[in-house]
## 1
Amino acid sequence: MARNIRRLRVMRGVSQEAFAVDAGIDRTYVSRLERGLENPTVAVLERIALALEADITELFVVPKTNDGPPPPLKSGRKKAD
C-alpha cells in the first residue's frame, strides 16, 4: 500500500505537503505512510483515495516483481507565472 500511495502521488505531480492538505492528514503522517511505518484506518484510506482522485482499490494493487520504487518528484519550488 505504501508504494501505491507514493506512486499515485508522484504520478499526479503532487508534493507530500499538498497531498496531506488535500487528504486532511499531517505531512509527517504521509511520509510515514509512504515508508510503510503506519497502518491507516479505512477512513483515512478513503480520504487518501479521494485526494489522489483514485479508486480505493488502486491502493491495494500488488506491484510487479520488476517494478522499482516510484521516482521522486523534481525538487525545488515551481516558478511563479
Note: The chain has a mean pLDDT of 88.
## 2
Amino acid sequence: MDTDTGETAAAAASPGRVMGKDGMAALVDILAGRGYTVVGPTARDGAIVLAELESADQLPYGWGVEAEAGRYRLRERPDGAAFANAAGPQSWKTFLHPPRVRQWSADRVGEETVFSADLTRPPRWAFLGVRSCDLRAIAVQDRVLVGGAHRDAVYEGRRSGAFVVAVECTEPAGTCFCVSMGTGPAAGPGYDLVLTEVVDDDGHRFWIRSGSAEGDEILAELPARPADRATREAARAGVAAAAERMGRTMPETDLRQLMAGTLDAPRWDDVAGRCLTCGNCTMVCPTCFCTTTEDVTDLTGDHAERWRVWDSCFDLDFSYLHGGPVRASTRSRYRQWMTHKLGTWYDQFGSSGCVGCGRCIVWCPVGIDITEEAAALHDWSRSRPSEEGA
C-alpha cells in the first residue's frame, strides 16, 4: 500500500509565486483569453459541482462540506476559502469521458440510407481545482482509454490539449482516504499549474507553481509575487495536516492479494444484503469507464442515432450472454466491482482503480463503505487459518 504524501519533485524544486484573489480572477480570464473553456467547482443545488466558469467569482468561496457514508451537506466557512471542500458528486470524467456521446446518425434519403459520423469538435478544456485524487484518476483513465492498443477517440480528443490546474487538499472530508491509496493530499504529476490555498493571519492567498511550459507562460502573466518562505511553510503545513486528518483508511495490506484471497468470504453475503445494486458508486467513481450503446429512431423511422452511454457492472444485464447474465446475484456483482477496483485492475492496467476520493461512500444511498468492507475482508483473512486449524 502506497503512503507517499510529499510534494512532487517538480513542485518542490520550484519556489513558485504567491497571488491573491485578484490573481485567481486573472487566471480564469487568461485561460478564457487563450481559447479555453474553463471548468471549476461552484456551489449549486446544495453541493459543490463542476460547471463552466465565466469568472472566478463563481468559485465556492466560503463553502465547505460535511460528508459521511450516505450523507453530504454544504456548510458555510468563516474564512472564505475557495477550495476547502472535499470532492463533490462529479469528477472530471464527466467532461473527458462524458455520460452520453452520439457516435453516428443515419438518415433515409429516397431508397438509400446515409450514415454520418458525429464529428462535433470538443471544447479546449481548462480544469481549475483538480484535487490530487482526481489528478491521479485522470492519469488512470489515460492509461485505460488511450494507453493501450485500443484508443478511445472521444476521450483522446477531449483529453489532448486540456489544461490542468491542480489544487492541493487542506480540508479532507470524513470519507477521504487518499493517503491510503498514495494519491494525496499533495498533488502528483500531471498538472500544468498547481496551487495551495492559505488563509491565515497574513491574509488569503494562493501558492502557485508550474508543471509545464504553458504553465510557465501563464504563471508569468499572473499578478503574483515571488513566494515567501512563510507562505510556502504554511502551505506545506496545511497539506501535511490534511494527511493526518483522513476520515477513512484502507487496511495496511496488499489489497490485490487480499481481494484474490477472499473470494469465498461470507462478508460478500453481508454486503449483498445491504446493496441496492443501484450503480451510484460506479456513476460517481472518477475511474469507472464501462459503456454500452443505445440506438434510437424518430417517429417517422427515417432518422436513427447510435449513442454511447455509461454502463455499470451492477446492472443485471451488464454481463448478459446468450442464456442469461453471468453475474445474476447481488453478491457476485458487488464482488466483481470491488475486486476489480482494488485487485484485478492491477492485472489489466498496472495500478489500482481506486484513488481514495470517497465518493462511492458518500453517494451510496445505504452508506456502504469500501474501506469498511476491505477491513472486514482483511479481518476474515487473518482469522481463517486459526479457524481451519481448530
Note: The CA atoms of residues 4 and 355 lie 13 Å apart.
